[in-house]
Amino acid sequence: MLGLPKSTELARPLPKKAVFEMFKPSTADRKLFDEQINRMTIIAEISPQTLAVTASAEVAAVYVVHIALKVPDCDKKNIAMLAKLIDQRMLFILQHSTNAKLATYRAGKVLISDSKPLNDWVLPLTGLDLEAIWENTIVQIGNISRSEGKDLDTAIIERDCRDKLAKKIETLEKKTMSEKQPRRKWELAEEQRKMKLELEDIHNG
Fold this sequence. Notes:
This protein is of the alpha+beta class. It has 2 domains: 6-142, no CATH class; 152-204.
């Protein structure tokens, strides 16, 4: 799966019951998890024990977890919960029917790729050590653009801010167009202008 070398392959079930018993999520979190996730399996370990790759001070191994979904989309809360509960570098394959998305957790954010057929996914392992491989994987999944000299966490946080601000601007544009009162319309347009300037500052930052 993902075009990973055969030496990395595992088939280690990760029972939901064991996760719940060990980490005791809230009733609401457990219900959401149960409603969306069918089963989980650790299908690969990327480490010096499975590949000719060097560990780093920060990353000793990366685990690939296949998640069979009951529904087409997995709430980010479920991914964040797994990532926080299990102290490992983890790449999640979120599969529903024949399609899949890749997901991971970094800088307090859940990053999820677009969906495409599972068999079309190929994950290149590029980098001089495991930390570089891990960061390049995150860049690919999250479609992160890294400016020269900018660390990955900063790039992720800035991208998240841009996305949220762009959505606010889009909502405000619709509200402005439907507003009938001239004064209120002007106020909304001015608020929109300030947001666009803020968005431009983030882009140029």
